[in-house]
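Quick question, first post here. What does this chain look like in 3D?
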Amino acid sequence: MTARLNGAQPYALALFRIVIGLLFACHGAVALFGVLGGADGQGGTATTGAWPNWYAAVIELVGGTLVLLGLGTRVAAFVSSGAMAYAYFKVHQPEALWPIQNDGEGAAMYCWAMFLLIFTGSGAFGLDRLLRRRADEPGRRTADQAPVAV
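> Answer (accepted):
Ran it through. Tokens below.
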């Protein structure tokens, strides 16, 4: 049973990455474009350039999209995890000690989910993996291997 579960690990990780990336990108789209109810529940958006809401929304949309696609997953997850740690400690934690008390469960969960992706990478189905496989194809010459004159 363990061997079978271990064999499915890259696919389960890819599904985790895709879902987390999609949900995270949706948070950014809500604040930037007012979709899905908007930032205020009535189609409102974050004021352009407003600290920290607008910047957080950009990180959520771009970082979530990159994580969803599996492109630059580790870097995107690092920045996204840091943004959610900032959100938790600067916005939520001053209200109360525990996430359940200060409405910081989302920020805490996204922070730790993205933190996990820093170490695991994209798993299966990620563009990172596809691009790496293409670059590593045998017989494919890179710029530094190409002959100067033929």
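Helices lie at 2-33, 53-69, 73-92, 99-102, 105-120, 127-135.
The radius of gyration is 19 Å.
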